[in-house]
Amino acid sequence: MDHPLEDEWRNFELYEKIRVRERRQRFWTITLAAFLFLALCSVPVIQDRLPKWQSLDAALEISLELEHLKTRAIQEKRSAWLRFSGPGEFRVDFVSDCESKADPVVEKVSRWKDREGSLKVLVREELSRHSIALGVDEICFDPVYGLSGVKSRIVLVIAPVKDLTEGRFERASYVELEGESAKISIN
């Protein structure tokens, strides 16, 4: 016959195992609820900042293309001309010199990262309409003289299309080219 103290001890161990399992389930339930709460709270923030992140990604890609363009222009000893031809498209031409821009040799027509036409490089009309004085929509880099006709800086503006209708530019990204050597920075 079992001793009553042993039965009591077995019951205690059994209940202790049950309590440990309940605590573990409670911990995971609370952790999951906290994770879901934080995930749901972050959705509006992500939706608000996603266009800025996309425009920064596009600005990075365009700046890498500009660096490649400058390198190729110096290696080939020809002027390189970058133009934005359509939504999400750019065109690289090599010309005899930046002043005349005559007889362009089309090197490549390519696309930059533009998700569903949501981003746009502002063209001259839009730049003047929004009073952006330093903005350009085409760049010519001469291997000898650097940026043609530029003494200080020029700016490419990449903006979410939705923001353009509202005249907002806080989610736009800027590729700044400074000086004749076209030092690139992204804002």
Q: Could you name the key traits of this structure?
A:
45% helix, 187 residues, 27% strand, elongated, minor pseudopilin epsh fold
Enumerate the spans where pLDDT stays under 50 for 5 or more consecutive residues.
Answer: none
Total strand count, please? 9
Domain tally: 1
The dominant shape is elongated
- Give, in spatial order, the strands making up the sheet with the most strands: 3-2-1-5-6
User: DSSP strand (E) fraction?
Assistant: 25-35%
Helix content: 40-55%
Corresponding CATH architecture: 3-Layer(bab) Sandwich
Q: Quick one: CATH superfamily?
A: minor pseudopilin epsh domain
Q: How many helices in DSSP terms? A: 3
C-alpha Rg, in Å?
30 Å
On the 0 to 100 scale, the average pLDDT is 82
Tell me, what is the CATH class? Alpha Beta
By CATH, the topology is minor pseudopilin epsh fold
Task: Record the SSE blueprint.
Blueprint: H1 4-76, E1 79-86, E2 89-95, E3 105-111, E4 119-121, H2 124-129, E5 138-142, E6 146-147, E7 153-160, H3 161-166, E8 173-178, E9 183-186
Antiparallel strand pairs: 1-2, 1-5, 2-3, 4-7, 5-6, 7-8, 8-9
Structure description:
This protein is of the alpha+beta class. It has a single domain, classed as minor pseudopilin epsh domain (minor pseudopilin epsh fold, 3-Layer(bab) Sandwich). Helices cover 45% and strands 27% of the residues. It contains three helices and nine strands, in the order αββββαβββαββ. Strands 3-2-1-5-6 form a five-stranded antiparallel sheet, covered by helices on one side. A four-stranded antiparallel sheet has the order 4-7-8-9. A hairpin with a 3-residue loop joins β5 and β6. It is elongated, with a radius of gyration of 30 Å. The relative contact order is 0.13. The model has no long low-confidence stretch (mean pLDDT 82).
